[in-house]
C-alpha cells in the first residue's frame, strides 16, 4: 500500500479556546514566545532551552522513513540554530549596553 492510499482517521473534536495554554493543534501560545524573547536579554549567561510542543507525528499512518528521520533531526537542528542566534543576540546587546 502506498503512503497516499492509507486511510485518514476521522475524529470529531470539540472546539475549545485554549489561547492561554496552547491548543489541540499543538500550537504553543503566542504569549510563551513573547515572554521567552523578552526574558533572554536579562540572562547573563544564556544556558537554557524551552522546547514547546510535542515531537511525535500526528499522522503516523502517513509517515515514511525519510519523514520520520527528518522529524527526529528537526528539534536538534532547530535548538542548535536558536542557541547560536541567541548567543549572538545576547553578546550584541551586552556590547551595546556596556558602551552606554
The main β sheet shows up as: none
Number of helices: 2
State the helical fraction. 40-55%
* Rg (C-alpha, Å): 19 Å
Specify the structural class.
Answer: mainly alpha
What is the molecular shape? flat
Per DSSP, what share of the residues sits in E-state strands of 2 or more residues?
A: under 5%
Write down the overall mean pLDDT. Answer: 66
How many separate structural domains? Answer: 1
* Total E-strand runs: 0
Gap between N and C termini, in Å?
66 Å
Low-confidence blocks of residues:
94-100
What does this entry look like structurally?
There is one protein chain. With 100 residues, the protein is mainly α. It has one domain. The protein is 44% helix and 0% strand. It contains two helices and no strands. The chain has helices at residues 30-39, 65-98. The longest helix is centred in the last third of the chain and has 34 residues, at 65-98. The radius of gyration is 19 Å and the shape is flat. The model is unreliable at 94-100 (pLDDT under 50).
Amino acid at each position: 500500500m502506498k503512503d497516499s492510499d492509507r486511510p485518514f482517521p476521522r475524529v470529531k473534536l470539540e472546539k475549545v479556546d485554549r489561547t492561554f495554554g496552547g491548543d489541540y493543534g499543538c500550537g504553543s501560545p503566542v504569549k510563551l514566545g513573547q515572554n521567552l524573547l523578552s526574558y533572554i536579554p536579562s540572562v547573563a549567561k544564556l544556558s537554557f532551552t524551552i522546547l514547546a510542543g510535542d515531537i511525535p507525528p500526528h499522522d503516523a499512518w502517513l509517515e515514511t522513513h525519510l519523514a520520520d528521520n527528518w522529524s527526529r533531526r528537526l528539534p536538534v537542528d532547530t535548538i542548535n540554530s536558536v542557541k547560536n542566534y541567541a548567543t549572538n543576540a545576547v553578546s550584541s546587546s551586552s556590547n551595546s549596553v556596556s558602551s552606554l
